[in-house]
Specification:
It is a single chain. This protein folds into 2 domains: about 140 residues, no CATH class; about 130 residues, no CATH class. The protein is built from 10 helices and 5 strands. The termini are far apart. Bound molecules: iron/sulfur cluster (3 copies). One iron/sulfur cluster binds next to α2 and α3.
Length: about 290
């Protein structure tokens, strides 16, 4: 099946019938190779839409800016989990969103003017091929076993084997490079606060100075806010202009949450997030918690 053509045909139908005001999909970017988000309002424009392995952006995030309109959005499996996340957290109304789900071939690394050859590490490890929620499916569904978290990335395992001080040095070096542009936050479907803690002055959680301690604080708090909510779409890592390995941090947290709570966010809209709930007499069975 030609995925691009199938998306165009469905987009044309939705716009011609007035079912939606806009279709958010992908089009070829200005380098002529890598995809970028496209906002299609007219049926005559649907031929701009494409789908290929450069379609990395998580378009579900844009739904946060179109809450009042009926919108169609193209999603890969990880992005479809973001739809459930947003729906479950009451950020979108499900009946205003028409989901065009795509069976995912994985996405490649991004470089201006160059077609990536290798799937991103997280896509290589990803066990999801079919969107978990959709109104229309593009592509042939792939037979999958029971949904399972992706196994730990080899690079995360390498980090785990390091002595704590060495691991700390690794993250210090990563965080020192951060220029605090917040592109990672803007690209993330889980970062929905109207006022981010990092911009608050009362109380001031993080100073405005861009230095190692403040950067460390920014990344630590953001990681905690995303623990148990990150759907591992990699949008933050792709958005980062200095290529900080946010994917390793997010993957580690997602893996820990999956092991401790048998939970993967976004698989349904109804599931309660383990770190936002309290179960009396809960025992995690690890470390000091097990002996308490
Ligand atoms: S993480 Fe999985 S679902 Fe998401 S783009 Fe990669 S292969 Fe597709
Ligand atoms: S933290 Fe990164 S990988 Fe996780 S949901 Fe947000 S953008 Fe996606
Ligand atoms: S996108 Fe990269 S440089 Fe910008 S705030 Fe996030 S981690 Fe820092």
């Amino acid at each position: 099946m030609d995925l691009s053509q199938a998306i165009r045909d469905k987009a044309r139908e939705l716009l011609e019938t007035g079912a939606v005001k806009c279709v958010i999909g992908y089009e070829t970017g200005t380098d002529g190779i890598n995809a970028r988000p496209a906002f299609i309002y007219e049926a005559a424009e649907v031929d701009r839409l494409i789908f290929d392995e450069t379609c990395g952006h998580n378009l579900a995030t844009y739904l946060l800016h179109h809450r009042a309109e009926n919108i169609a959005v193209v999603v890969k499996p990880c992005d479809s989990r973001a739809i459930n996340l947003l729906h479950g957290e009451h950020q979108i109304e499900r009946d205003k969103v028409y989901i065009i789900g795509v069976v995912c071939p994985g996405v490649v690394g991004r470089q201006w003017g160059v077609k990536g050859r290798q799937l991103l590490p997280a896509c290589q490890a990803c066990t999801d091929r079919n969107p978990v929620v959709y109104d229309y499916l593009v592509g042939e569904p792939v037979a999958e076993g029971a949904p399972a978290p992706a196994p730990p990335l080899p690079e995360v395992e390498d980090l785990e084997r390091m002595p704590p001080e060495e691991r700390c040095q690794f993250w210090r070096r990563e965080f020192e490079r951060c220029i605090r542009c917040y592109a990672c936050r803007q690209a993330c479907p889980g970062c929905q606060c109207t006022e981010c803690f990092v911009e608050r002055l009362e109380p001031e959680w993080v100073g405005i100075r861009i230095d190692a301690p403040q950067n460390w604080m920014w990344h630590t708090i953001r990681a905690f806010h995303l623990a148990g909510r990150c759907i591992e779409c990699q949008a933050c890592r792709r958005a980062c202009p200095v290529d900080i390995r946010l994917d390793l941090l997010n993957h580690k947290l997602a893996w820990e949450v999956a092991q401790l709570f048998n939970f993967r966010p976004g698989m349904t809209a109804e599931a309660l997030f383990p770190l936002a709930t309290f179960v009396r007499d809960e025992k995690l069975g690890v470390g000091e918690w097990a002996s308490s």
